[in-house]
């Protein structure tokens, strides 16, 4: 049987692009060159149509609250998507999938609800982490729940020797990204998981930047927790996933409470007592984003319809082309090694020319090009620890999805050359 990892079909990029209306639309009379996929992927026609259909024809609460026919259909779609997500990342079952508002809320959930045991009160982070990972654990540490330890990087690469020294019998959790949103490439999350488990610790893996051009297997990775956002996979905003081994999820404390999280609430002589449900219901308080989760199923189906090896090869080729082209421009410096970058889906560069202004360059890409505007990400990318480590005030980031082309990279390089000519005058 063909699996996603050995699908021999080629990728029809033209057919992929036809699924995304924004790529052929005009804004202010200009066509879009979209190279900001690490921020969010564009949304396909089928996702938009599913959202519109849900809100125009359905729009009811799921069946755990109401039991009428509208409600039953909505709940069926909601749980169907949960099963689909479980298959997509090879979880053991849908009970290991919690829907959140995004990867940020998923990390906050773990940071607030994680139960320390005995002397294990340390959380190890790396300086490659997005603020969405750093800040929840920082706030938990401020409350006295954790002691934070920071694993440094070397030229933007994980220092595994340092990680080995930091993870001890005091470590409760290691939290790390699988792919940096600044440095690109892929981090050795599997080796980190084995290290953490060998010392009796757990691991949380941030898959937000990994899944757009890779397929995760959480069982092979042996992650205790993993998080990602739907919108980075072409799904709607406001939907995220927390994966957790069933035992790990049910070992978490209370996070956000409310309707749908309890079997019963009784008043005793000592006051009210709640009997909370097991995961995932215990963590999905209130009314979930039924419409967003339903439409997320369309984004997943679209990803699954593409040949995964060909997607990975295409994105890798785009990264190599962009990195090589940038390396030929002396006025900029590419972050990371070409062989590492090719494993990921993005390239970042810093300015070397003293008059190169990141903000002005962003304006140039939007307003000074004839017939096109180019969308990239410029700034610190919510990764202040890494920028401090690298001693760069900010970078320009190009990030790719299955619909991007070599021609779009050439458009960007031509635009960069035009901007550099202005600097030399």
Topology:
Blueprint: H1 13-17, E1 26-27, E2 30-34, H2 45-57, H3 69-88, E3 97-100, H4 103-113, E4 122-126, H5 131-142, E5 147-151, E6 153-154, E7 157-158, H6 160-166, E8 171-177, H7 189-198, E9 202-206, H8 218-221, E10 225-229, E11 240-244, H9 246-250, E12 262-268, E13 271-276, H10 290-305, H11 308-327, E14 332-334, H12 338-341, E15 346-351, H13 358-367, E16 372-375, E17 377-379, H14 384-390, E18 395-399, H15 406-424
Parallel strand pairs: 2-16, 4-5, 4-8, 8-9, 9-10
Antiparallel strand pairs: 1-2, 3-11, 6-7, 10-11, 12-13, 14-15, 15-18, 17-18
* Outline type: globular
Mean pLDDT score, rounded?
95
Please give the order of strands in the largest beta sheet: 3-11-10-9-8-4-5
Q: Give the biggest beta sheet.
A: 7 strands, mixed
The stretches of 5 or more residues where confidence is low (pLDDT under 50) are none
Binned strand content: 15-25%
Q: Return Rg in Å.
A: 22 Å
Helix content: 25-40%
Number of helices: 15
* Count of beta strands: 18
Question: Which structural class best describes the helix and strand composition?
Answer: alpha/beta
Distance between the termini: 61 Å
Please provide a written account of the structure:
The longest helix is centred in the first third of the chain and has 20 residues, at 69-88. The protein has helices at 13-17, 45-57, 69-88, 103-113, 131-142, 160-166, 189-198, 218-221, 246-250, 290-305, 308-327, 338-341, 358-367, 384-390, 406-424, and strands at 26-27, 30-34, 97-100, 122-126, 147-151, 153-154, 157-158, 171-177, 202-206, 225-229, 240-244, 262-268, 271-276, 332-334, 346-351, 372-375, 377-379, 395-399. It is α/β, with parallel strands linked by helices and 425 residues long. It is built from 15 helices and 18 strands.
